[in-house]
Amino acid sequence: MIPRALDDLNNYLKKGKVLVVFGPRQVGKTTLLKNFLSKTQLKYRFDNGEDFRITELFSSGNPDKLSEYAKGYELVVIDEAQKIPDAGSGLKMLIDNNPELMVIATGSSSFELAGTVGEPLTGRKRTLTMFPVAQIELSETLNRYDLKEKLEEFLVYGSYPEVITAESKEEKSRIITELTHSYLLKDIIAFDRIKNSRVIFDLLRMLAFQTGSEVSLSEIGKNIGVDAKTVNRYIDILEKSFVIFRLTGFSRNLRKEIVKKNKYYFYDTGIRNALISNFNPLSIRNDIGQLWENLMFIERLKRNSYKNVLLNSYFWRTWNQQEIDLVEEREGKLFGYEFKYGGKIPQAPALWIENYSEASFEVVNRANYLDFIL
């Protein structure tokens, strides 16, 4: 078992509230639940949203039936809750009529689950996001030397649980490829507004090749044969289904700063590499800088999420090509980070120092990256 940051769900449970656990498919949400339930002293029942009887019950709008279903239990757990139409209304009715009850609901597709859960449960839920395995989680069983020894594996094959535990590189590449094509994009392509899976894959491949660069939606649209509005809609779905993360530009309204374009990172570098069918070792790759930037950004995101660090994240770039990969705004202060896989240590951009004299600047490289993500 890989220790997970959310292992003790007791920390998040509250009577009369629904704990919603989001996350991509295959990151270990069901394993997390079953591991928690095997140790809990609470009297619980566990059901799956794919069960027709559960779907019918929670969609019935019948408070008496729901109360009868929960009677005698302290905790109700619904895995794959996104399969239940209008799940939020059913869950709201359940806890409104059973205020001593605790509920956990999980879902792999936030665009579905958020739509059916979010609004009805306003003020009645706590939301957690579970990611592919984080370095901060692996540090519970591996020391810093071991993590550095496995760095190339994380950059090339990513951090899904089944990939990490696979023995060979061939098995890792097979698993992450299968996961990309059969599991991760299953919900997206099945989504009723997605008519052409080829367009989604073409879009993802273009984003993969432009990882860490500012992206023009109209340019991408021309290349894949759809308009910019359609590209934007697909990107929104890919974000909400935990495939990519959008990073916006930072500006204090200085005319030299770029803010209209966004940068995109993949929640997992293995997924990114599977989309472009490239599992080559680092020694013969020309995209190491992109992989490094993606890994550092997403591991920092996981760390901040699991440690409940409140902040805003941006990138910073000017029209004359001065840039900083990541800017964090927390507690009223600015922190700039530049990601460099190689040994060269760049200086802070002159305009950054000139316009944000109170801000910090740090280069994150192979020598110090574990301090940054742990």
Compute the number of helices: 18
User: Could you list the spans in which at least 5 consecutive residues all have pLDDT below 50?
Assistant: none
String of helices and strands: EHEHHEHEHEHHHHHHHEHHEEHHEEEHEH
What overall form do the CA principal axes indicate? globular
Classify the beta-strand content into a percent band: 15-25%
CATH superfamily of the largest domain: Winged helix-like DNA-binding domain superfamily/Winged helix DNA-binding domain
**What's the N-to-C terminus distance?**
20 Å
The order of strands across the largest sheet is 2-3-4-1-5
Which class do the helix and strand fractions yield? alpha/beta
Q: Multimeric state of these chains?
A: single chain
Number of beta-strand segments: 12
Fill in the CATH topology of the largest domain: Arc Repressor Mutant, subunit A
Q: Tell me the number of structural domains.
A: 2
Helix content: 40-55%
CATH class of the largest domain: Mainly Alpha
List its salient traits.
4-stranded mixed sheet, single chain, 18 helices, 5-stranded parallel sheet, 12 strands, about 375 residues, 2 domains, alpha/beta, about 15% strand, Arc Repressor Mutant, subunit A, Rossmann fold
